[in-house]
């Protein structure tokens, strides 16, 4: 089942095209939106929220048309914006309760729910403090709380770990993982931080220049028909890499004396092949281990 | 995860309604979207009610009308409070209200600054617009909510003190023809307060929407209010004398427009105090249409300026 369907979507800012003929189906669960700066991630989120009118194409979020049902979509969506934002002059509980009231919750329910989500987001002790006095990490939690207060079916998180220290980042990622698994809330996380996406998301969409260049579950994208190995030599030996390439290995990465090769699954005993080649080319092998394709590899391959 | 971290759970505070810290969906009632702008208005009004400056201005306005009340009390009746030779007897009560309203206009301008200058500017500074408009709320809902919050804040100070004087007059001078001479006076008081509040609210909200700091919005509105007011007064003067009431150019400034509206609404060309400084001939009433038109232009310009600036996202066209 998909939470959003987009067909041939184009969004332009004057002469600049931010999203270019994009077609994508976003599955339910937790999906990461990846891409370099200017890839169109934030523009896509703003368009899905109904803030921007598409120049061409169409889209649906939770079965509602993005061009004509912006209000209905925002009723069922929570947004945690990237930038630092709060309603001035309010303490956290008043701010989150007001966010609930803006979504139509009766004030008593909104206040009760504000206490609940602030506790859930780890701000229970600080909920009567003015939001302007919060640290960056607390502001991030507050933004998450206001996005969750009305019980949305879909939450957009734009750079949710920006400015967090390692402990705060761990807690935020655990919160995201918690709400997006088994709580009936779908999450779309836009981030530059690949480890964050890897820890929280089931699937990823990689964008570049306003288009989708890679999509799938992380497990699918990591799987490969080849066998990848990391080989570390005492010193760089170009002849070693050349000889392995001649044998059908595909060099993926070369950093100093460290190499990553992808061998065809049909090669047979590749350990033997690596050590024999090393002996023949005078290379000293200091490390040899099977490599795992990381999200960073997937991302770099997609945007190159 | 959150369960393990919370001290309340560790202490066994299971009776608390928020002791269960797992995430739950909200499946309670939702109110109709039509009145959602009122939530925005309340967000303007709640901090205003705690603002000491706001209540200080309200107190000063009230003091002015208490002065009127004392004058009436010590002079023994409303007939002696105005110049009997200058004011039509049927408008003698309205004349007192018009005279004392004139003294409160500066305070109402300050109230407009206190209530309205930060109304949208503070949201711009804190990026709160993104929070408001990411909810099921239109630009119109947001603007109406802000405008109404500012309007009500000014209206309360503009209407409550003269209403208090009206209640005193109704209780003390009912036997001296207060109701028979001025049956519509209470409506005139409310209408004038509404007009003044609408002009101030529209302009200050419009300026606030284009600023990122309350202070800047205050300075800009003060500049427009005083500089335009001074220029218009100088242009409309009749030599060294003030302009006669029927000279329309004097109503072009914000202060002038409010003066003109007060004369129209109380149906008096000049106040009881001012009449004693006028020349010998009877002053003429200013024309209603141009003054109403000027007021409408101020209101529309303010609202249009705010509407043009309210956006969830700033779109820079390349």
What is the CA-atom radius of gyration of chain A, in angstroms? 24 Å
Mean pLDDT of chain B: 84
> Segments of chain B where pLDDT lies below 50 for 5+ residues?
1-15
Estimate the helix proportion of chain B, in percent: 55-70%
Task: Give start-end ranges of low-pLDDT stretches of chain A.
Answer: none
Contiguous helical run count of chain B = 14
Which CATH architecture of the largest domain in chain A is right? 3-Layer(aba) Sandwich
- Looking at CATH, the homologous superfamily of the largest domain in chain A is P-loop containing nucleotide triphosphate hydrolases
**Strand order in space, largest sheet of chain A:** 6-7-8-3-9-10
Q: TL;DR of this structure?
A:
The complex is a heterodimer of chains A (304) and B (318). Chain A is of the alpha/beta class.
3D architecture notes:
- The complex is a heterodimer of chains A (304) and B (318).
- Chain A is α/β, with parallel strands linked by helices and 304 residues long.
- In chain A, 36% of the residues lie in helices and 30% in strands.
- Chain A is built from 11 helices and 14 strands.
- Chain A has helices at 41-48, 70-75, 92-102, 107-120, 136-148, 166-180, 194-200, 218-222, 238-246, 270-281, 295-303, and strands at residues 2-13, 16-27, 30-34, 56-61, 64-65, 77-80, 154-158, 186-190, 203-208, 211-217, 226-233, 250-255, 258-264, 285-290.
- Chain A is elongated, with a radius of gyration of 24 Å.
- Chain B is mostly helical and 318 residues long.
- Chain B has one domain (37-309).
- Chain B contains 14 helices and no strands.
- Chain B has helices spanning 2-5, 7-10, 37-49, 52-74, 92-116, 121-125, 128-133, 139-172, 178-181, 185-209, 214-236, 254-266, 272-275, 288-309.
- In chain B, helix 4 (52-74) runs antiparallel to helix 5 (92-116) and helix 10 (185-209) runs antiparallel to helix 12 (254-266).
- The chains are: A alpha/beta (304), B mainly alpha (318).
- Chains A and B meet through helix 2, helix 3, helix 4 and helix 6 of A and helix 3, helix 6 and helix 7 of B.
